[in-house]
Amino acid sequence: MREIIIGENEYGQRLDRFLLKYLNNSTRANVYKLLRKKVIKVNGKREKENYFLKLGDRLQIFLSDETLDKLRKEEKIVMDGKVNLDIVYEDDEILVVNKPKGLLTHPDKKEYKKTLSTRVQAYLKHLSTRTFKPASINRLDQNTSGLVIFCKTYEALKKYNEMMRNREIKKYYLCIVHGIVKKEGAIKGYIVKNTKTNVVQIFDKNNKNGQFIYTKYKPIRYLNNNYTLLEVEILTGKTHQIRASLSKINHPIIGDTKYGGKKIDNITTQVLHAYKLIIGDKVIVKESKLINELIDKLS
Fold first, then answer.
1. Which residues contact 239 (CB under 8 A, 6 or more apart)?
2. What pTM value is reported for the model?
3. Rounded CA gap, 118 and 45, in Å?
């Protein structure tokens, strides 16, 4: 019999979801079967799969070590080279890092080594368990740079995800767009993604596939009478939201050829940087070297 004492990074999770991470070489159907047959108990009694684990719960698995080993596969943090992180802020709950342009936030089907998440998990490997790994609550497109928040504990992950849903975390971006944006404004609409082209479109009215978006923008500086440095705040976080929003008002981001922007100095991807976070009384800022260089050049 194996007994697991539920600690700070495990409690609050549904029993079935915890078990699927702990028995990561098993299946949902098998986990449910083990619960139904009382092979797995909580505090000595059977619990349903939707039971939420409490701090100090004793989870008992009545299987031999040999059988358990078959239901669990060893997970290793895959890293390519040294941990290379630009840490902007860190406390007991969160780590805020500056993601460089060109780096994926999370692994995908094509790349699982060279990502921001794998770098952070390597840096915080002392906090990783079989059922919890430090995770981000926001993500940026591969070619968007800037601030990404990672939570160091499961309790922090729940807390900051709720803050994000309640719009208690303010997110600001800087970008350079074509044309002169004369005054501040807002864009509301419904975003629809074309999965074949990976391009989104914003509609004024909803349809069955639309997701509501809300984007605010404010001109900061005019550059050579042809470009505007904008500060953008997003109150919702959808794929390509800022890029499509600014394209919709005919001020696409320079370099963003996918959404109508033109190539500038061999830059063929969006010049967009998540530069500021406001979390309660904390203001976290990181400037973009690329944007500062372009401001000097275009001025």
1. 141, 191, 193, 200
2. 0.81
3. 38
